[in-house]
Description:
Largest sheet: none
Number of helices: 19
Radius of gyration: 23 Å
Amino acid sequence: MKLMCCGGSNDSMDLKNPKKDDEAEAKGSGLGVRHFQVFLLFCALTVAYAQRVNLSVAVVAMLDSNSANPHFPEYNWSDKIKSLLLSSFFWGYVVTQVPAGQLARKFGGKVMILSGLTICSVLNILTPLCAKLGGWQLVCALRVVEGLCQGVVFPSTHTILSQWAPPKERATLGTCAYSGNQFGTIIMLATSGMLAASSAGWPSIFYISGGVGCVWSIVYFIWGASSPSECKSISSEERKLIEMAQAGEVATVQDQAKEQPQPRTPWLSIFTSPSFLVLIVAHSTHNWGFWTLLTEIPSYMKNILGKDIKSNALLSSLPYFCMFCMSFVFSAISAQLNNRNCISTGTSRKLFNTIGTWIPMVTLIGLGYTGADQGTLAVVLLCFTVGTNGATYLGFNMNHIDLSPNFAGILMGITNCVGNIMSIIAPLVVGVIVTDEKDPDLWRIVFFIAAGFYLVGNGLFVIFGKAEVQPWNDPPAKPRRNSTPEVESQH
């Protein structure tokens, strides 16, 4: 990792002087269309995560109407059926990750994310009717289709960000967009109890989350754009800024892209690239620790510490709220370091990924040694663990675009597919290890395993990770270059 004195020269990070002038002009111009596009992505991820977690909070009232409004249907589903329903979303979610990246590159990120979330929103509205007509079997099938639809969200978001975010703003804009994950979870967890107990009952949880998704779809259809070249409202100055800033990374030309077939995805080069392989490891090990934490900590705190955070909406949403807030804190720190040329892009990715994984590694172990009379300390450690995890948005999560702006969506699809497989396996492993949920020694084994994944994954990322555009990012055929470099437009 390479550090530089603040305010000093950094030829490896800065573009040529005309491009630096363009960037300085943009900084003085305040918010632009690119920021509005990122806000739309933030809203998209808010909707996506609200729809992802709504069943996990609504199923409590669906199985026990007396816990909310008794005037709505109650279903006699076993715990096994409940587990099938809650996991069925991910069966479809994993399947479409890799194809979604390829499709987003071919048809544009807007088409894919708009199609996926629109269908998912409609299906959410139909969930209460499906439960009434087809029972848990139809609800399970519906959740699988929802997972298939939402599998396009992350690859499409990365594809769009690769087109809209200038390299120096990439971490900040990416964090702003992906913080919608936590915001959607916070809103759903904080309001679900109130909605279930209202006169509209538990069906309102699905109606509102689906309805908001439909509203977003209309807004994004009108104002969303896959790239600056497809946006009618962007000024020529801002478009030039983005394209000139990206010209040093992307050697493709818009007009040539229209005239020639789109270059094939270099699958062999991607899967033999050490920097990408270590990115897969970083994403996968992060998911193991993160999902072990969020799926098993409530059970640990209830059985070992006697604190049932699932029954308390405030405590349930508090860790996500901490992560939401801390992601902006880390983003501001990153922006300051970047603006002052204190740190290179590669060092920044490794620094924040280390903060987001190795600090939770330590606090996870601390949770394992928290006594039954230290419930408050355990909640503080939990919030600190999840909160600092937000730094990974500035770490491995943006590294896909660093390695290949042209294929960023495909790279995200691959790593997110493997990462979510790890997310499914992690709770199963916990179930094998923790045969007695009231035995703290067994829980410590779980925490040490998760901490070990954090240690190894980030260690490899720090040693072997890179933030430079890889040679396979550019197509083999060298297109003719115009006097004004332009980035590739995705159609």
